[in-house]
């Protein structure tokens, strides 16, 4: 009960603090200021104590609490046990609230020194109030017998075999049981990145509320210019930390999920990317306002959007609306939480843009005094390009909602949409990252500009020619590589000059260098990777991708029933043992596959495990991996994977949870000019999975081994089919490890670019803090 009381106390005190700060703003006196501060600190103490109390419950395995039972277990190592704090809806809201209150503790002192405390902390308490209200609705301190009262609450004598129990009302003989073990953590989350990525992401979410807070505070105070100076360090910090969190999530996916990529354009991934892009756009337009006084409405609008889009991201992730179309989405949180999320998003949008509309005639209009060859115009074009990129991604991300409204049927958009819509803007953004650095404020001379860009253009052309010689053939990709190389060259030159003068001004150039490197890494690693599926019989060396020699050495058990499959990799005299992991998870009731990577300077050699075929399984037939429409030959057959056969009736059964669900795979088999279609089946009945083979007229059987339908792009669907001849003699005596080997060229540019970008943001934050301190001294 302690946790619940702390949450309710925080709820009351945040309301009191918000009202007191509002009265302080309205009355222009300090009569209620002390009450506001005391109440705020009461909220802070309650949230911090309740957070540590939840962590204590997790570490001491208090499974009488529903949240602890749902996400933790006694066999988890310490770092993963701590990570279960934010593995579910309730805990992740607690983490978000905790980081928000920590930011608030810093912000109350910062805003007080700047003379903005009443307005800033009033709006801050609105944000904090929303989060605390979510904790009231999605309380992490609910008892497990409240969640399952029919199963765990009993009346009458307590049997000797009751196990863990607690009297609820001993006088009436009411008692409750609770388990002695938890359900555990999803295997996909059992990775050290679980201890890093979510925390950084939630710091970013918390920090992105501060631009909104300062923008609304400026509207309340009717101060439309000075807020930029005090808000800029927070905008840079929030955008930088959110970007770091996003890219670390990409590395987690790359290292753990086994599909060989770091970005899948999943709706939940995109929903974090969109507010980050808007934050980046606002960073640039704020420069123009600080220098020239322009873009006042634009900056207020973008700062409001930063947080509104974070709320939209939260709504998409946690409302359950993407449950059928995203692998990351949380399940339905319940009607109260759903409407609270929707209501908060509408409220903060209305407050921000409603105030902006009311103040529209008071906001000064600064006459445009710059030419098209000026830094202001380049910044404007770049910011608008970034915003349009965010808009197209937001529309694609929202496609399940849009399609459900228009056709009453949710469907995710094809991922090719994102590449087609964002690539042209990426080219423009990269070019402007270079050109803008060479332009002067107000106006520049065309001749001088061209002269300063001569060397970067030559270097970019040479780079592009090399890429064309290496096999780049798509026009847009070539233009994108040229633009990225151009931006890289310009910013290296500019950054070098700045570092020689005053290094604290080099943050922008360093961040641009990082982004340009990431652009090149995106193309080289994702567009021009090389992959091959291969079967490795134990002890036999197989050459793949022309220059790698692979030898399967066997497998051995590692932590918690996992097995490491050791593969010796030889390339150009270098040898490395790569050990991907496979194991059967009782949590997911399926086979888990974790890749392993040989990191090298110019590329990664990536091994994703597919299956292990024992001699008994191998003698039953050969397993082939098919992409949709792919044809493979075996024993004189031409075998083609047509498509999955999963009709609307069967989909409805799956959604409604009916006991028996069946899916088929259409396989076209050609033998001596005669074509025949067979359909092996997958059936789920009473929780038990079975694979029903299809028999060809020749006597061969076709059985599903593994299914990977792609809901977003059916052309990317794959299936593994085992083809066997019942009358064949045994052909294998050793285990065979089936893998997909991939060479990812220059993927290190992505990670190197990330580091450079974060360093650039950090330098800029420190510079803006110095400027704010200097201005504070001048005012005092």
Low-confidence stretches: 652-658
**pLDDT averaged over residues:** 86
Q: Characterize the biggest β-sheet.
A: 6 strands, antiparallel
Radius of gyration, in angstroms, nearest whole number: 29 Å
* Estimated structural class: alpha+beta
| Tally of separate helices | 23
Indicate the proportion of strand residues.
15-25%
SSE arrangement:
Blueprint: H1 2-27, H2 33-59, H3 66-71, H4 78-83, H5 89-114, H6 117-137, H7 144-147, H8 149-152, E1 153-155, E2 165-169, E3 174-177, H9 197-207, H10 209-221, H11 227-256, H12 267-292, H13 296-318, H14 335-358, H15 375-397, H16 399-407, H17 416-438, H18 446-469, H19 475-501, H20 507-527, E4 530-537, E5 541-544, E6 548-557, E7 563-571, E8 574-578, E9 581-585, E10 590-594, E11 596-599, E12 603-613, H21 615-619, E13 622-627, E14 631-634, E15 637-645, H22 648-656, E16 660-671, E17 674-678, E18 681-685, E19 688-692, E20 694-695, E21 701-708, E22 718-724, E23 736-745, H23 748-779
Antiparallel strand pairs: 1-3, 2-3, 4-23, 5-6, 6-7, 7-8, 7-9, 9-10, 11-12, 12-23, 13-22, 14-15, 15-16, 16-17, 16-18, 18-19, 20-21, 21-22
């Amino acid at each position: 009960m302690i946790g619940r009381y702390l949450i309710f106390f925080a709820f009351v005190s945040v309301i009191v603090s918000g009202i007191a700060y509002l009265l302080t703003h309205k009355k222009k006196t300090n009569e209620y200021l002390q009450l506001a501060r005391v109440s705020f600190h009461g909220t802070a103490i309650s949230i911090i104590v309740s957070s540590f109390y939840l962590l204590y419950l997790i570490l001491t395995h208090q499974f009488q609490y529903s949240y602890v039972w749902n996400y933790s277990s006694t066999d988890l190592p310490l770092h993963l046990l701590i990570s279960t704090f934010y593995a579910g809806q309730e805990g992740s809201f607690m983490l978000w609230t905790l980081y928000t209150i920590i930011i608030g503790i810093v912000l109350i002192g910062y805003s007080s020194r700047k003379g903005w405390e009443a307005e800033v902390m009033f709006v801050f308490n609105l944000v904090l109030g929303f989060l605390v209200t979510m904790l009231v609705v999605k309380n992490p301190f609910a008892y497990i017998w409240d969640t399952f009262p029919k199963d765990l609450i009993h009346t009458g004598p307590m049997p000797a075999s009751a196990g863990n129990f607690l009297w609820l009302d001993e006088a009436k003989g009411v008692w409750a049981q609770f388990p002695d073990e938890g359900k555990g953590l999803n295997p996909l989350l059992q990775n050290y990145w679980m201890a890093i990525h979510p925390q950084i992401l939630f710091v970013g979410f918390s920090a992105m509320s501060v631009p909104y807070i300062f923008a609304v505070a400026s509207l309340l105070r009717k101060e439309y210019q000075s807020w930029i100076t005090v808000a800029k360090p927070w905008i840079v910090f929030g955008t930088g930390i959110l970007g770091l969190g996003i890219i670390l999530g990409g590395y987690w996916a790359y290292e753990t999920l086994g599909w060989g990529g770091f970005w899948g354009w999943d709706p939940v991934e995109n929903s974090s990317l969109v507010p980050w892009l808007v934050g980046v756009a606002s960073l640039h337009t704020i420069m123009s306002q600080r220098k020239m006084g322009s873009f006042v409405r634009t900056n207020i609008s973008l700062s409001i959007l930063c947080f509104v889009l974070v709320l939209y991201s939260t709504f998409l992730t946690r409302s359950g609306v993407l449950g059928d179309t995203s692998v990351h989405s949380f399940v339905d949180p319940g009607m109260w939480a759903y409407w609270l999320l929707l209501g908060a998003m509408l409220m903060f949008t209305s407050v921000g843009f409603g105030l902006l509309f009311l103040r529209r005639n008071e906001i000064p209009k600064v006459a445009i005094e710059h030419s098209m060859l000026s830094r202001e115009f380049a910044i404007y074009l770049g910011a608008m390009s970034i915003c349009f990129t965010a808009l197209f991604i937001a529309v694609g991300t929202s496609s399940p909602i849009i399609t459900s409204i228009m056709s009453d049927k949710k469907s995710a958009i094809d991922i090719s949409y994102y590449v087609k819509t964002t690539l042209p803007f990426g080219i423009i953004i990269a070019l402007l990252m270079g050109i803008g650095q060479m332009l002067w404020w107000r106006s520049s001379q065309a001749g001088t500009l061209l002269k300063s860009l001569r060397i970067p253009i030559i270097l970019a052309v040479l780079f592009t020619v090399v890429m064309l010689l290496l096999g780049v053939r798509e026009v847009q990709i070539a233009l994108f590589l040229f633009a990225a190389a151009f931006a890289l060259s310009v910013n290296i030159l500019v950054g070098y000059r700045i570092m020689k003068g005053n290094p604290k001004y080099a943050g922008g150039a360093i961040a641009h260098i990082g982004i340009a490197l990431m652009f090149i890494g995106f193309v080289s690693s994702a567009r021009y990777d090389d992959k091959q599926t291969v079967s490795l019989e134990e002890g036999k060396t197989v050459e793949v991708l022309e220059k790698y020699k692979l030898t399967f050495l066997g497998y051995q058990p590692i932590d918690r029933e996992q097995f490491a499959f050791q593969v010796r990799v030889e390339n150009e005299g270098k040898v490395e043992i790569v050990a991907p992991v496979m194991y059967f998870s009782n949590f997911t009731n399926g086979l888990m596959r974790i890749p392993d990577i040989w990191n090298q300077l110019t590329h990664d050699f990536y091994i994703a495990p597919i299956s292990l075929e024992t001699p008994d399984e191998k003698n039953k037939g050969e397993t082939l991996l098919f992409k949709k429409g792919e044809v493979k030959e075996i024993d004189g057959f031409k075998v083609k994977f047509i498509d999955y056969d999963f009709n609307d009736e069967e989909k409805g059964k799956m959604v409604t949870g009916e006991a028996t669900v069946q899916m088929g795979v259409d396989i076209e088999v050609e033998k001596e000019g005669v074509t025949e279609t067979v359909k092996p089946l997958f059936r789920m009945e009473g929780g038990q999975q079975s694979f029903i083979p299809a028999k060809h007229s020749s006597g061969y059987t076709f059985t599903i081994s593994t299914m990977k339908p792609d809901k977003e792009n059916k052309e990317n669907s794959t299936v593994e089919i085992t083809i066997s001849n019942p009358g064949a003699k045994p052909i294998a005596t050793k285990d065979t490890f089936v893998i997909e080997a991939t060479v990812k060229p220059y993927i290190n540019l992505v990670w190197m670019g990330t580091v450079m970008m974060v360093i650039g943001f950090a330098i800029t934050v420190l510079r803006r803090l110095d400027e704010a301190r200097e201005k504070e001294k001048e005012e005092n």
